From TrEMBL:
Family per similarity comment: Belongs to the threonine aldolase family.
Cleavable signal peptide: none
Domain Aromatic amino acid beta-eliminating lyase/threonine aldolase, residue spans: 44-323
Residue numbers bearing the N6-(pyridoxal phosphate)lysine modification: K240
NCBIfam families, alphabetized: GntG_guanitoxin
Gene Ontology molecular-function annotations: L-allo-threonine aldolase activity; transferase activity
Keywords: Coiled coil, Lyase, Pyridoxal phosphate, Transferase
GO biological process, one term: L-threonine catabolic process
Encoding gene per record: FGENESH: predicted gene_1.765
Needed co-factor(s): pyridoxal 5'-phosphate
Region called Disordered, residue ranges: 1-26
Protein name from the UniProt record: BY PROTMAP: gi|472581932|gb|EMS19640.1| threonine aldolase [Rhodosporidium toruloides NP11] gi|647394978|emb|CDR36214.1| RHTO0S01e16754g1_1 [Rhodosporidium toruloides]
One Pfam family recorded for the sequence: Beta_elim_lyase
InterPro entries to which the protein is assigned, alphabetical: ArAA_b-elim_lyase/Thr_aldolase, Low_specificity_L-TA-like, PyrdxlP-dep_Trfase, PyrdxlP-dep_Trfase_major, PyrdxlP-dep_Trfase_small
Annotated organism of origin: Rhodotorula toruloides
Length: 428
């Protein structure tokens, strides 16, 4: 028996043709677009992941190795992993696409069987900015520490949140995570050494989200091996600060990294031909890392100038971040954002006042941002007077005093920090 084929209805000639595709850009148009992006980035203070690869970097990437890194056959990826592992004094390293992935891989690999808890700072990226990854991937609860000084967790504060007994009502602590730098502030190395020693007494491993560890190195003069010494595992971002196009590195013992590789596959995070990305990261280690002290200089320059104008600084400017609140001058962060864009082509994040200086920032953008603040200040004298009346002269003077101190990267007493801690990535 012959089964008849289904009839096929052909489109009539009167059917409208699909709209034509936009013609591809010419080489000249692409070059112009990239040049415009470079200028835009030099005036963008939202984050240090906003940097773009240079033409020279892309030229080098063309000749990168082209092996399959999932099969562990890509030479430039292997070389990058071995290089950073040696620099950090760790046995092995794993190249991944992002710092969120390396953090979550580390946490998942450390934790074996629920129930368990992770102790970390309440402001930590792993806690508030990784889409609930600790709970989702590792089925762990998080015990958050609220540092009394507002700067960094102490050993005693961490141990207060650790569960180390057999009470069945609570989840035992199986990991502590710290972040260095956190909001641009450097975690004191001596306290990290104390913390590692204390946690060893309870067999609790210590992981570091070192997305901006490079900034801590540039600030303190420590080597990478010294900075990483207190930790069992470390995540290092290669696109924040260093300006690589993509990537982060997870460091740890050889067996740990082998197991993390398994979870990376499970997460869908393997990169096949990763050589170009790995080579770019390696080049940035050589070329961008030495430039980080300049970003700290520019951040301090901006902090001092804004504090002198009366802008409230919410955190000490220790590395490449300036946390600002212009309300004492009579206008909001959103108003400053709009004025900076309109008057100087400068991009700021709002409503939170995090200003991040990266290595591609033009120093003239620093000066022009200060000038925008001065212009708004001159227009809002009545609003500024009302603000001072509302908070009181004594509190206003204390805010100004602390802001001048924060501009020098110093602090005394408790740091209250910015009102808003959750990010609003990408919003203009």
């Amino acid at each position: 028996m012959t089964v008849p084929l289904p009839s096929v209805r052909l489109a009539s000639s009167s059917t409208a043709a699909p709209p034509p595709l936009r013609p591809p850009l010419s080489s000249k148009e692409r070059i112009a677009r990239n040049q415009a992006k470079r200028v835009q980035v030099s005036r963008d203070f939202r984050t240090d992941t906003i940097t773009i690869p240079t033409d020279e970097l892309y030229e080098l990437m063309k000749n990168a190795s082209r092996g399959d890194s999932v099969y562990d056959e890509d030479e430039d990826t292997i070389e990058l992993e071995q290089r950073i592992a040696e620099m950090a004094g760790k046995e092995a390293a794993l190249f991944c696409v992002s710092g969120t992935m390396t953090n979550q891989l580390a946490i998942r690999t450390h934790l074996h069987q629920p129930p368990y808890s992770v102790v970390t700072d309440h402001r930590a990226h792993v806690h508030i900015s990784e889409a609930g990854g600790i709970a989702f991937h590792s089925l762990a609860t998080t015990n958050a520490v609220y540092p009394r000084d507002g700067h960094h967790m102490t050993v005693e504060e961490v141990l207060d949140e650790c569960v180390v007994d057999d009470d069945i009502h609570v989840a035992p602590t199986k990991l502590v995570c710290v972040e260095n730098t956190l909001s641009g502030m450097v975690f004191p190395q001596s306290e990290l050494v104390r913390l590692r020693s204390a946690l060893d007494s309870f067999s609790i491993p210590l992981h570091c989200d070192g997305a901006r560890m490079w900034e801590a190195m540039a600030k303190t003069g420590m080597s990478l091996s010294e900075a990483c010494a207190p930790f069992h595992t470390v995540s290092l971002c290669l696109s924040k600060g260093l300006g690589a196009p993509v990537g982060s590195i997870l460091l740890g013992p050889k067996d740990f990294i082998r197991r993390a590789t398994w979870f990376r596959k499970q997460f869908g995070g393997g990169i096949r031909q990763a050589g170009g990305l790995a080579l770019a990261a390696s080049v940035c280690l050589d070329t961008v890392l030495p430039q980080l002290p300049r970003t700290h200089y520019l951040a301090t320059k901006l902090a001092r100038a804004l504090a002198a104008e009366g802008v409230q600084l919410d955190l000490p400017t220790e590395t490449n971040m300036v946390w600002i609140n212009p309300e004492p001058l009579g206008f909001s962060m959103t108003e400053l954002q709009e004025a900076a864009r309109a008057k100087a082509g400068i991009t700021l994040g709002a409503p939170r006042g995090r200003v991040v200086v990266h290595y591609q920032i033009d120093e003239r953008a620093i000066d022009e941002l200060v000038e925008v603040v001065r212009e708004l200040k001159a227009q809002r004298t009545e609003e500024a007077r009302q603000w001072e009346e509302q908070v009181g002269l004594e509190i206003a003077e204390e805010i100004r005093r602390k802001s001048r101190l924060y501009a020098e990267g110093q602090y005394d007493g408790r740091i209250e920090g910015p009102k808003r801690s959750l990010p609003a990535y990408g919003k203009r």
